[in-house]
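Prompt: Have a read of the protein record below and flag anything odd:
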Amino acid sequence: MSTFSDSGFEEELQSPSPRGLPAEQPDRLTADCHQELSYDESCFTIQKNNQLKFLALGCLSRQPQITPEARCKLVSWLIAVYKHFSVSFESCCLAVNIMDRFLVTTSVAADCFQLLGVTALLIATKHVEVCSPRIKQLLSLCCNSFSREQMCNLECLILVRLNFRLAAPTLAFFLDYFISKELSCKMISDHEGSDYKGFKLTEDQLSTMKRFKCFARRVCELSLADYAFNRYQPSVIVQSAISLTKDLLRTHLKQSSLQHTNALETLDLLSIGDHELHDSDSHSLTLQCTEELRLLVSLNQESIQNLLTL
């Protein structure tokens, strides 16, 4: 079953099958790449158009007991929890979205806020992961301050208040899309019409790409915890995070005394999300988000400094 079924993905995706490509396509690998890009583009378009439906603008405006500082503390804790259980970044992003959208609908007491966060994570992992953490494990991280019955009751309440609409577009989705698309496009442009039999990145390129994605994901994690970024759509935050990451890594490599020629060449090849910035009507909004992220990163320099080292 499609992971986007809750948001009407299967009903909206009525475009011709990505398998139906022209028979005259000369290279099978190139054809497969075009198929994948076509399908990914459809997914991206649907998720991008669905962002406003799942955006929890001003989720704390009606919360007398929950402050931006309390939300930041809880989300930072959830980030540590998702890493502890080795679940995906998608689960973490979805958990925060579920929590914020619930806050729009329901007033939450300060002493129940942690229970809301961990219950949202439980729902998200059930939706995304093959195996979700056990309730007992999650409650133990809350020092057993809550009962199993309380968590299950809150889980039911969250699902009802959100009308069981869980497949929200997330930072993780757009981050994976922009990076994978750039690699796929490079594969096609480099090898279309050639006798190319396989596509492999060098070890240096793989290392650079891994560091690039880790740093961009860390920037996205910081934005998740900061309530100031609650007003931005996920695609805007990801484009800003990618742009900032490229800039910071390139600056670091140029200033380094070590030779990182291959890493610089890899970064120069990446035009991830650049076409989206120029085609989007929210170009100025994206630039504003980028500058706010730059400030956020500078305030958390110590926690991300190791990610700059290549």
